[in-house]
């Protein structure tokens, strides 16, 4: 089988790109997850918060979110804790709290029937073969070869496409999330900072009767650090009983503008594979959908140099992420962060009776 475009990965980036491409392109998408929500198949560990930027992109696509994707409760503030200084402040937030897996399934359901979807299929290797790419895929234990003119790597943080075709490394963390039965009297979001645990951050969320604690940790001793974090949070009143689920994956966090990898000789990266994720909040869904949109614009403009055009079209995304990198300097420098939190700037004055 020969395609014009093969997309590796059907998360927000890959599913958006596959949905937007016109039928004139013979397109295929490959993903290891099932489209039929089967137990035991891949689910992306995620906080599942849809940021205002991501909402704006859905608005741009004229898409409305089905209510089944939303979870209970919707929360309007984030409790920000600096553990060492014991300072807590609340900031207003405008996220939509959703079921991330249902969101991915919904985006995939919008892809045109003409697009060939290889679900429950792993992309094992890609090599250049004359003017085409030779892609080895495995499904149900069976190996198959398909060919494509272009490759779009939408395969997330642990991108095989990026490793095969781009030399640029990117800073990465191990993201661990644990789910507990929700026992707090009032559900809340929190952002937790503790430089003895991580130079990134930890977070909590509440979804449909479960409390989720997550943290982005450097790989060394990450499980031990996560347990230490839990002990510290228990002392602060967090109700963390026996976990019902533990999930883990890599998360990218660009540390410099040189860590973005975008396009080269027929290979294009979109979403987190390109490094498009906020280094300050680890919010990545909006950048995944936006970069997919920019690449769609390039392919439908019929340009002679699509790599160059895509590099140009992603300049704004990269510039926004560099601004987030600058914001990170303040957020992740403990003395500066403490001054900002203590100052109460942009914070909400909470009713004293509230936890
Ligand atoms: C714990 C955690 C919490 C987060 N919370 C939030 C949040 O609340 N809000 C937010 O906006 N962002 C959040 N992010 C970031 C966000 O999840 C990602 O940036 C976003 O999912 C990137 O989308 P993507 O489509 O580029 O990649 P992904 O969503 O990672 O999708 C990649 C897809 O590629 C598939 N794939 C990869 N390799 C292969 C292969 N070899 N063969 C077949 N299939 C393959 C995977 O199955 C997957 O479906 C969080 C990240 C983590 C880790």
Structural features, described:
This protein is α/β, with parallel strands linked by helices and 355 residues long. Helix 6 packs antiparallel against helix 7. It has a single domain (2-340), classed as 3-Layer(bba) Sandwich (FAD/NAD(P)-binding domain). The model has no long low-confidence stretch (mean pLDDT 96). Helix content is 28%, strand content 29%. The structure holds flavin-adenine dinucleotide. Flavin-adenine dinucleotide binds at residues 8-14, 30-33, 42, 44-49, 51, 54, 122-123, 154-156, 160, 175, 177, 214, 249, 251, 271-273, 277, 282-285, 288.
Which word captures the global form? globular
CATH architecture classification: 3-Layer(bba) Sandwich
| Helix count from the secondary structure assignment | 9
Number of strand elements: 18
Low-confidence stretches: none
List keywords for this structure.
alpha/beta, globular, eight-stranded mixed beta sheet, binds flavin-adenine dinucleotide, 355 residues, 9 helices, FAD/NAD(P)-binding domain
Concise summary:
The protein has 355 residues and is α/β, with parallel strands linked by helices.
Topology summary:
Blueprint: E1 2-8, H1 12-20, E2 27-30, E3 49-50, H2 52-60, E4 77-82, E5 87-92, E6 96-97, H3 100-109, E7 116-118, E8 121-129, E9 132-139, E10 142-153, H4 160-165, E11 172-181, E12 189-193, E13 202-207, E14 210-217, H5 222-235, E15 245-252, E16 263-264, E17 267-269, H6 285-300, H7 306-313, H8 315-331, H9 334-343, E18 347-348
Parallel strand pairs: 1-2, 1-10, 2-7, 4-12, 10-17
Antiparallel strand pairs: 3-6, 4-5, 5-18, 8-9, 9-10, 11-14, 11-15, 12-13, 13-14, 16-17
């Amino acid at each position: 089988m020969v395609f014009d475009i093969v997309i590796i990965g059907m998360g927000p980036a890959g599913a958006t790109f596959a949905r937007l491409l016109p039928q004139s392109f013979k397109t295929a998408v490959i993903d290891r997850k099932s489209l039929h929500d089967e137990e035991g198949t891949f689910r992306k560990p995620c906080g599942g918060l849809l940021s205002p930027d991501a909402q704006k992109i859905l608005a741009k696509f004229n898409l409305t979110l089905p209510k089944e994707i939303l979870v209970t409760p919707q929360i309007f503030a984030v409790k920000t804790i600096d553990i060492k200084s014991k300072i807590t402040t609340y900031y207003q937030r405008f996220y939509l709290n959703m079921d991330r897996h249902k969101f991915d399934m919904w985006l995939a359901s919008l892809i045109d029937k003409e697009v060939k979807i290889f679900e429950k299929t792993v992309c094992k290797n890609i090599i250049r073969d004359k003017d085409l790419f030779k892609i080895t895929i495995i499904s149900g234990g069976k190996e198959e070869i398909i060919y494509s003119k272009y490759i779009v790597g939408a395969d997330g943080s642990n991108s095989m496409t990026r490793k095969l075709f781009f030399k640029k490394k990117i800073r990465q963390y191990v993201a661990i999330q644990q789910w507990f039965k929700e026992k707090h009297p009032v559900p809340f979001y929190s952002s937790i900072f503790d430089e003895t645990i991580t130079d990134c951050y930890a977070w909590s969320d509440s979804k449909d009767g479960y409390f989720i604690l997550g943290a982005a940790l450097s790989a060394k001793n990450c499980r031990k650090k996560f347990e230490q974090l839990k002990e510290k949070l228990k002392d602060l009143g967090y109700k963390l009983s026996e976990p019902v689920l533990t999930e883990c994956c890599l998360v990218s966090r660009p540390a410099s503008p040189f860590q973005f990898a975008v396009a080269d000789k027929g290979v294009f990266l979109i979403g987190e594979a390109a490094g498009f994720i906020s280094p300050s909040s680890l919010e990545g869904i909006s950048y995944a959908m936006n970069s997919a949109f920019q690449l769609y614009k390039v392919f439908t403009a019929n340009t002679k140099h699509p790599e160059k055009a895509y590099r140009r079209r992603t300049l704004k995304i990269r510039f926004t992420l560099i601004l987030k990198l600058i914001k990170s300097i303040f957020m992740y420098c403990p003395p500066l962060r403490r001054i900002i939190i203590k100052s109460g700037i942009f914070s909400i004055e909470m009713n004293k009776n509230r936890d």
